[in-house]
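Human: I wish I could look at a protein chain and see how it folds. This is the protein in question:
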Amino acid sequence: MASDSITFSTSPTLAFAGTAVATGIWFAALVAIPGLQDSGLSVVIARIAVHLVTIGGIWAALSHTSLDPAQKIRTWLALAIPLTVWHGAAWAIVANGLLLPGAIAIPLLPLMIFVPTAIVITLLLRSRRIAMVLDAMPAHWLIGLQAYRVIGGVFLANWVAGTTPGVFALPAGTGDVITGLMALPTAVVLASGRQGSMRSALFWNLFGIADLVIAVTLGALTTPGPFQRLALDHPNLTTGLYPTAIIPAFTVPTSLVLHALSLRQLARRARLSETVAA
């Protein structure tokens, strides 16, 4: 694991530059090829890729624990199956248009964001098996994984295309892109163990959480419904439209869970460092 960290921590600048170039090419393609944006293909591919990387990362983390092979398989299945079912259910709800304004009487999207997030975070943080996995997992993994947050740039592309109001797209899309761009450099710095790396990781997590809170709030305030107060002449319809709606329906709560687990890791490591120093 030490050798992995050394390799991973060679260049924060290179990590940022690589993410920035890839994001720039992707965003330029969305703007230059309207059909690509309309098809939602990039969101679908990115979301499936993130899911596969997440469940693959769970298995990789289990490989660092002292669990026997059977325990590792059971633990992986106990995490991967509910995550896949959650993702599939969210995808089905979005694909069937149930998040479109007026589709159903209850505000389904806020429930999909906050209820599963609260349940999952509570269960994960109370599980001793998960605690073992998190303690064995390198702290930079959960941070680097969220490089996928650049997918929020789709809201900026929608704004350029005139389909999403700027009052939502600009802060939500920009915050997501910044969080995603800084994920790998922050993970690189944390893996290196250099001075101030823990503070950088903490700040990155807090910024990422604030971005999600702002995006969800502005999404509710600009989407037709009981909470709309902004963009009355140009309402935000993309938060309920397939496949873009999979971002608030599943990516947002998943990101909140990852932030919570990362903060838990950082807190545990800080306490351990204080104990060792004492």
